[in-house]
Structure formats: structure tokens, C-alpha cells
Amino acid sequence: MRQGFRQSMAWLHTWAGLVTGWVMFAVFVTGTATYYRADLSLWMRPELRAGPSDAIPAAERGIAYLKAHAPKAMAWYVSAPQPDRPVIAVYWMDSLEAPLGQAMLDVESGAPTKARDTQGGDFFYRFHYELQMMPALGRWIVGAAAMILLIALISGIVTHRRIFADFFTFRRDRSAQRGWLDAHNVTGVLALPFHLMITYTGIVTLGVMYMPWGVTAAYKGDDLRFYVEAAQTTTWRPAAGRPGEAVPLAPLLARAQGEISEPLEMVIVNNPGDANATVVAVFEEPHGLAHQHPQIAFDAASGSVVERVEPLKPAARVFTSFMGLHEAHFASTALRALFFLCGLLGAATIATGLVLWTVARAPKTGEAPGFGLRLVRGLNIGTILGLPIGMAAFFLGNRLLPVDLAHRATWEGGVFFGAWALAAVVSLLRPHRRAWTELGLAAGLLFGAVPVVGALTTDRGLDFLAFDAAMLGLGLALALGARKVSHYEARRQAAKAARPGPARVPEGLVEA
Amino acid sequence: MTPLSIALNLALSFAGLAALCLAMDRHHRAIAGRGQTRACARMLRLAGWAALAASFAAAVVTSDWNFGPVQWIGSLTGAALLVVGLVSYRPAWIRPAALLALPLALAAALLA
After folding, report:
1. Residues A240 and A297 reside in one and the same domain
2. Per residue, what are the HEC states of A433-491?
3. How many CB pairs under 8 A join A and B?
4. Which of A89, A344, A368, A435 has the highest CB neighbour count under 10 A?
5. From the list B6, B21, B81, which residue is nearest A190 (CB)?
6. Residue A461's pLDDT is what?
7. Mean pLDDT of chain A
8. Which of B2, B24, B77 lies closest to A190 in CB terms?
9. Of the candidates A309, A333, A352, which is a domain's last residue?
């Protein structure tokens, strides 16, 4: 080896971190927001009010709607109302290729709700692993970036070998590079178990998609049987091709509920209307790390039980526990807050690492920055501040777009990407220090505006206090950060003006 | 996994990490304004690790082997962030805060 091991690792860490940093920053931020997916969805549908509901009559209403509106579908899915999602959500599959049809029904009447058309918290959830692209492409990009991030994490532990000796060290009073390095190390090491866990389990979650060949070889192309044996789903019973009469649904569901103590979460009907139709009752995950839903399948014509999902075998238990750890559905309010904090630290580690790359390569006084440096600086600001600006605009769009706008949910996504793209353009065109201040302030103002606009456009009063507080907190943090950058800049410029040396036109004059 | 059990975890982890921080010469000098003897540093280190072990035990007792370790690691991150914040911005507060954390942990343990 021409260089030492540590230098090689430093090189690897630097470049693995840089190429994946922007994508992974967005993945971390939207993933962290997804810990509060249900709360975001509730906020984004202010017409809906949480209330008590009975799962079985709700499932009957959902099936009745599907019978009327999607009689020819291959499969129906009815999701029972949840405390944090007070609607009956119905989906239907017309073919394996077509996207699922979907509708949201009122819990009491079973008719489509009048709630505004929005993706709610699912928008960030899907962005987190598909980047709102074509699903397969987005998943491959996120997966490849996550694999490289895992390399960056492990090489980073070797590179920043002083992280444990400097465990509590954050030197704000030294050089800029020292401060950024300390911030990168501290945010990295304090949540290191989380960073490793979340990156690894994230890759594992979609592992079968990235490496399908083991399953294909072992199951000779019958991939569905793999999922049945892994206790993730019930067997697909092919259609008989002749119509059949189904027994009433409610007694079946009541029998299933008698066997399982968890609440009913979803009812699936495969091949509805066929003589071989199957009704599957899916229950919520028992409280535990493993992500698995108890399921009971009935023959719809006779009402007899055809299948029960098996208890997890060891390998499947490990896999589902990894998934469970990643999603943290088990986490109570306080633990969820800690997961959220860890997610923010992850995003901060990536952001400080990206900034550190540019600080370490800052040109000497009098030299012009090269194209690469200017590009990275612009992309850094465009991502680190552009994404929060997009998110705040997305929330504002949810409140300000007309409720009856056609394709409203798509428009909300358009607002998100439009605001982000605008911020990215500004960050590439403005001098980079000014761009930090201006966009930071813009992001702070946009987040600060969310509770105000929310209060003015809905009659929900103080129902969303926690959400409003979080928005104000984020806005304040971003605005203070912007102020800090401009103050730091003012001091630097003053020091530079006092120091004799080659004259240099300052990048934008300092506000008094 | 009640808020009280997490509060107990956070308080013990915070006290432990604060002691470990004080056991490091550089931080001790910044916080106390003077150096420390080796015996003092050893005592602090011992106390720190003992508190972290107690925090782990508390997590497993209150939240089971299933979630206890997850909760313990989460509390370490949260507590460490608080220690770093105090050391950097309010070093004088760290000793009183760590001492205050112990009765708080006791109260949470009695209530949990």
C-alpha cells in the first residue's frame, strides 16, 4: 500500500461522504419527519377529527363501497380507522401493473370524505425511500447511496480516530475548520449506534429487492411462497373463474378477532366475487420489536379458515426485528422523541461533513474559488436549506391551495419541489455566504408562517399545539443559524479589513 | 417504556456521562478551573461507568430486554448531547446539574 491505512480510509470517507451526502441528507431529513408521519397526516387533513370507531362495521362499509365502485378488481384492501387516521381507507388492485386505486371514506357514512386531497405524511415517507421518482429507480438510488453511506460511516470511525478521546469536545472559539470538524465529530459520535443501525437496517429492509437471486434460486421463481414461509403474508389462492356468493363479512371478522387480541387493522379480499375468493383479516403488530402482523385467511364462500400466518421462525424474526427497529413503530412518545433527535443528529452529521469539505478546500485570500468548490458550495446550500424550504412550502401549500383544486395532492408535491428548486437556483447564483444568510432567514420565516397560516385558514384553534410548537422551533433554529452565519461573517470581514495584505473585494458588504 | 422510565434513564445517563466528562483532564480544567489528582479522575470514571450501568439496568427492568437496550442507547445520545451543550456553553452548570439528576432519578425510580 502506497499510503497508510488511515490515509486511505480518510480518502474513502471524504469521497464516499461527498457523493452520497446530498441524497442521504434528504433521506435522513424526510425519514426523521416520517417518525411523525401520522401527526403530519392529521395536521394536513384538518377536516377530519379523531374519534372512537368500531373496526368491523367500518370494514363492512369499506367493502360495500368497493363492491359498488371496483367490482372487477383482483383484490380489495380496507384499512380500518385509526386514532391518528380517522377515515376508512380503501384500495383496489385492477392488475399487477396498474397503480392501486384508492379512496378515503367517512367512518360514519362510508361515503367519500370531504377532506382535502393530500398525501399527508405519506409524502415524506415515500420520498424517504423512493425520492418521489419511479419506485424502482428511486429505491435503487437510495439503496446505492445508503450502501456507500455505510462505507463512509465505517471509514469515518477510522478517520476521525479521536472521536472517543474528544467525545465531549466542541470548540467554538477556534478556527472555522476546527468548529465544523468538532460539530461533525460530536453529532456523528453521540448518535453513532443510531447511525449504524438506521443505515444498516435501511439497506436490509429493501435487501430482497437489491439481491433477489437467492430467493429466485431457492423458490424457483415462486417468490410469493418465500413471503408466505417468512410469515409475512398468506398464500394467494388463484381465481376459479366462476362467480361465487360470499358469506357475510362481519361474523368472519368477529371470529378472527376472537382468536387475536390485537385490534383489526386491515381486511383484504382476494379475487372478490369469484367462487375462490379469500378474505384475510390482518391485525396490528403485537407490541414488540419485530414487524409482523397476525393474519387469518378465510374461504369467502364457505367461511372456513384456510390459513393462519405462522409464528416467526428465527431468520424471519431477525429480519422483521431489523425492520421494526428501523421504523420504530413500537416507540412511545418519549422514545420517539429520542429517535427523532437521533435522526436530526444524523442529518447534522451529513450537513457538517458536506460543509467541512468546502471549508477544508477554501481558497487562500486573493485566490478565486474553482468551479468544483463553487458547485459543491451551491449544492450544499441548495440541499441543506433548500429541502427545509421545500418542506415548509409544502405545509403552507397544504393550507393555501384551494380545497377543490383538481389533482390537489400533486400540486402540493409541485409546491415542495418548486420551492426547493427555486432555493437551489438562488444558492447557485448568489455569493455563497450571502446565500446561507438569506436562505436561512427565508426558511426560518416560512416555518414561522406555518402556524400562523394554519390558524387563519382552519377552525381547529389549538388542536395542533405540538405541531405548531415544532414549526416555530424549527423556524427559530433556522433563523438563528442564519443570523449566526452573518455575524460570524461580519467579524471575519472586519478582521480582514484591519489586516494589511492583498486587497480583495469582500463578497457582499456587511450589514451594520 | 413510560415517560417516567425514560426520564429515569436520561437522568442516570446524564449523571454518568457528566462524571466521565469531568474525569477527562481537559474538561475538568475548563469546568473547575484547575487540574485534578489521578485518584479523583479514577473515582469520577468509576462513578460514571457505575451510573451508566445503573441506567442500563433501569432500562431493562422498566422496559424489558426487548426495548430496554434500545431505550438505553437512545438515552445515552440525548444525555450526551446535553453534556456537550453544557460543557461548550455553560460549563459552570454541569456539576450542579449532574448532582440534581441523581435525586430526580431516584424520584422517577420510585414513581415508575
Report:
1. yes
2. HHHHHHHHHHHHHHHHHHHHHHHHHCCCCCCCHHHHHHHHHHHHHHHHHHHHHHHHHHH
3. 70
4. A435
5. B81
6. 74
7. 89
8. B77
9. A309
Res. A161: pLDDT tops 90: no
A344 and chain B in contact, CB less than 8 A: no
Nearest-CA residue of chain B relative to A192? B77
Site of grid cell 466542541: A170
Residue in A168, A186, A335 nearest the CB of B1: A335
Please check whether residues A58 and A136 belong to one and the same domain: no
For residue range A250-281, what is the model confidence (pLDDT) as tens digits? 999 999 999 998 999 999 999 999 999 999 99
pTM for the full model? 0.90
Chain A residues touching B87 at Cβ < 8 A = 168-170
Q: Is residue A331 part of a domain?
A: no
Instruction: Name the nearest CA neighbour of A162 among A356, A1, A10.
Output: A10
On whether the CB atoms of residues A294 and A286 are closer than 8 A, the answer is yes
Q: Is residue A495 in some structural domain?
A: yes
Q: Scanning every residue of chain B, which has its alpha carbon at the shortest distance from the alpha carbon of A172? A: B88
Q: How many domains does chain A have?
A: 3
Q: Are residues A167 and A287 in the same domain?
A: no
In a domain, A356, yes or no: no
Chain B environment of A191 (Cβ under 8 Å): 77
How far apart are the CA of A195 and the nearest CA of chain B, in angstroms? 11
Strand-pairing partners, residue A184, are none
C-alpha B14, offset from chain centre: 2
Q: Are residues A19 and A1 in the same domain?
A: yes
Do the Cβ atoms of B81 and A345 come within 8 Å? yes
Q: Could you tell me the pLDDT band of residue B109, with boundaries at 50, 70 and 90?
A: confident
Q: Is A113 helix (H, G, I), strand (E, B) or coil?
A: coil
pLDDT tens-place string over residues A84-142: 788 999 999 998 888 888 899 998 888 998 889 999 999 999 999 999 888 889 999 99
Alpha carbons B89 and B7: distance in angstroms, whole number: 23
B-chain CB neighbours of A333 within 8 Å are 3
pLDDT in tens, A191-238: 999 999 999 999 999 988 898 898 989 998 888 888 888 888 888 889
> In this complex, do A338 and B78 lie within 8 Å of one another by their Cβ atoms?
yes
Co-location of A239 and A278 in the same domain: yes
Per DSSP (E only), the strands in A82-222 are 88-93, 101-105
Range of the domain at A289: 49-117+232-309
Tell me if A25 is assigned to some domain: yes
A29 and A137 share a domain? yes
Q: A63 and A130, same structural domain?
A: no
Q: What is the ipTM of this complex?
A: 0.91
Instruction: Supply the pLDDT for residue A424.
Output: 95
- A173 and A126 in a single domain? The answer is yes
- For residue A490, what pLDDT is reported? 67
Neighbours of A152 (CB within 10 A): 26
pLDDT tens-digit series, residues A48-71: 887 777 899 999 999 999 999 999
Q: Which three cell numbers stand for residue A133?
A: 421518482
**Cβ pair A335:B71 closer than 8 A:** yes
